[in-house]
Design brief:
Largest sheet: 7 strands, parallel
Strand order of the largest sheet: 8-7-6-9-10-11-12
Structural class: alpha/beta
Bound molecules: NADP nicotinamide-adenine-dinucleotide phosphate
Radius of gyration: 21 Å
Helix content: 25-40%
Distance between the termini: 36 Å
């Protein structure tokens, strides 16, 4: 029997790629950059399965270009805002993703960004590199304490809860908001469930851990930024589109908030001459939340398992919820 035909949009870790190659007749895009949309439309023609990344736009037209044989879209990420989920649903195509395995790595990075911004770690390293360090200075590079400060977590799901566990170890007070959050479930991670406005008003640090969708796009905007403390630090390891970028630049420039530490931006990559990058109170890293070796191996393995299940007519082990 011939193997199912699949297209994989990037070279991913061998932990997943080897499984795909074993089970499928696979074409793998070997470019350093993602395939352009038009190329991807050509490449998916007639495939049984597509394994994609968050850098690929997967819409109804692309699904139609693949044709009626497309049995699965398997994304190597937990977020899937790049995929038109309703379009897949009406065409009866299940979508796979990789929840859970990247929770701890992403929470580590969120907490790392929080610490780096609070204690001005990158600024300190640059200070030495620029040859400015002449003596121990009682007044230089003074930052903010974590102990006793309030952390507000927007989106107390898998990653939000993992961040809360870290914050408890640093003796922080934790507030949390998500639409269906109960007091009991927040208390499991030493957090107090509050409404969004209270969280923004009372937090010294705000960390975002919610998905990007039509309801959450620009949740952090001119109005919500102005509800935050004037010295608050905003951390985003979720998706860039949750923040109104122009409003954030303005808020950082004019002292409406104290600082921002971002793993994700809108757009990605951020332009090297974006005004955000010249602000001393902004720290930006290139979407590396899940970028640990173990985590990426697990993500590749899960994405391969979802793909293979889909093309062989089995239920996906990790299917994006619908409805
Ligand atoms: P999850 O377990 O599904 O948690 C998402 C949480 O967001 C849930 O608690 C949900 O609450 C909440 N939420 C949904 N809509 C909300 C809203 N309007 N306001 C506030 N909270 C809302 O997802 P996860 O695994 O923690 O991942 C979270 C996100 O992180 C992903 O969607 C992805 O975009 C991002 N991520 C980024 C990286 C990176 O590399 N930087 C890595 C992994 C994940 P309800 O249950 O009440 O709806």
């Amino acid at each position: 029997m011939s193997k199912p035909r699949v297209f994989v949009t990037r070279i991913m870790p061998a932990a997943g790629l080897d499984r795909v190659r074993e089970a499928c007749n696979a074409e793998i895009w070997s470019g350093e950059m993602p395939p352009p949309y038009e190329t991807l439309r050509e490449k998916v023609r007639g495939v049984d399965g597509l394994l994609c990344m968050l850098t690929d736009r997967i819409d109804g037209q692309l699904m139609d270009a693949a044709g009626p044989g497309l049995k699965v879209i398997s994304q190597m990420a937990v977020g899937y805002d790049n995929i038109d989920v309703p379009a897949a649903q009406v065409r009866g195509i299940p979508i796979g993703h990789t929840p859970g395995v990247l929770t701890e790595a992403t929470a580590d990075l969120a907490f790392g960004l929080l610490l780096a911004a609070a204690r001005r770690i990158v600024e300190g390293a640059n200070y030495i590199q620029d040859g400015q360090w002449r003596t121990w200075d009682p007044n230089a590079l003074l930052g903010r304490d974590l102990s006793g400060a309030t952390l507000g977590i927007i989106g107390l799901g898998r990653i939000g809860r993992a961040v809360a566990r870290r914050a408890a170890g640093f003796n922080m007070r934790i507030l949390a908001y998500s639409p269906s959050l109960t007091f009991e479930s927040a208390a499991e991670v030493n957090a107090v469930a509050v409404d969004l406005e209270t969280l923004l008003r009372e937090s010294d640090f705000v960390s975002l851990h919610l998905p990007l969708n039509a309801r959450t796009r620009h949740l952090i905007n001119r109005v919500t930024l102005s509800q935050m403390k004037a010295n608050a630090i905003l951390v985003n390891t979720a998706r860039g589109g949750i923040i109104d970028h122009a409003a954030l630049v303005e808020a950082l420039r004019s002292g409406i908030i104290g600082g921002a530490a971002l793993d994700v931006t809108d757009p990605e990559p951020i332009s090297p001459d974006d005004p955000l990058l010249s602000l001393p109170n902004a720290l930006v890293v290139p979407h590396i939340g899940s970028a640990s070796q173990w985590t990426r191996d697990q993500m590749a393995r899960m994405a391969a398992e979802n793909l293979i299940a889909g093309v062989t007519g089995q239920p996906l082990p990790n299917r994006v919820p619908t409805g």
